[in-house]
Amino acid sequence: MSTARWRGLYALTDGVPRAPEDLASLVEAAIRGGAVLIQYRDKGTDDRRRRAEAATLVTVCHAHGVPLLVNDDVALALAVGADGAHLGRDDLPLAAARRQLGPRAILGVSCYADPERALAAQAEGASYVAFGRFFPSLTKPGASPANLEMLARVRPRLHLPVVAIGGVTPENGPVLITAGADLLAVVHGIFGEPDPRTAAERYARLFPPVS
User: Fold this and answer.
1) Please, what CATH class does the domain formed by 3-204 belong to?
2) N or C: which end of the chain has fewer CB within 10 A?
């Protein structure tokens, strides 16, 4: 993934049970709309279904040259040949995930509203750090809020891509970009819409082409 591609829409699947081919169609629509990074996010317990979905999405994403990450599950990412994983507070430590997935894997770390966690993740070799939620969120309604002032304050100390998540819309996305976000992570704003491609295009337009 080139440096230029580290800006833009980061689309996270919503965990709604679907046939793998239906989920693949939605993800492909998001990519065609401009998503530069996809995360397979599903908290379900049906391991067979999750593996089938993740494997299908690897094929779709790679056909379009877009990386696929797996949320919270390094073993699944390894099993299906995903490009990496996203790690939360209670997941496998970053160093252990790096050992399992290899030096080229994309490994993101949730940092909530904690700048020190982000700086530690940077020192440990994270590929990106994510802050949020910034706005009321359907995905994590009880999550501790982050704020724009924190993001702007810590951004100069971070030398890796920064993701903003939580209630992000095309209307509030610009203030997050101005505060220092490189990627806007979106779940329901893409996959909860009747036309994911058009929805993705609205976010992608927030990021002018890099000259």
Assistant:
1) alpha beta
2) C
- Residue showing tokens 């299906």: 80
How do the domains of the chain map onto residue ranges? Answer: 3-204
Q: What is the pLDDT of residue 34?
A: 97
Q: Copy the structure tokens of residue 99.
A: 């050992």
pLDDT value at residue 2: 47
Give this prediction's pTM. 0.95
> Pick from 37, 75, 68: which is nearest to 54 by CA?
68
Q: Are 134 and 165 in contact (CB under 8 A)?
A: yes
- Say whether pLDDT at 4 is over 50: no
- State how far the Cα of 130 lies from the Cα of 184, in Å rounded to an integer: 9
The residues annotated with a catalytic role in the active site are 41, 110, 140
6, 25, 26, 32: which is closest to 14 by C-alpha?
A: 26
Give the pair of three-digit tokens for residue 75: 């073993």
What's the CA dihedral at 149, 161, 70, 20 to 10 degrees? Answer: 90
| 8 A C-beta contact, residue 36 and residue 11 | no
Residue 40 · residue 13 · CB < 8 Å: yes
Q: Under DSSP, is residue 36 helix (H, G, I), strand (E, B) or coil?
A: strand
Question: Which one, of 145, 193, 154, lies nearest residue 14 by Cα?
Answer: 193
The answer, yes or no, to whether residue 188 has pLDDT greater than 90, is yes
Name residues whose C-beta falls within 8 Å of residue 103's C-beta, 6 or more positions apart in sequence. Answer: none
Rounded to whole angstroms, how far apart are CA atoms 6 and 25? 23
pLDDT of residue 12: 98
- What is the tens place of the pLDDT at every residue in 87-103? 999 999 999 999 999 99
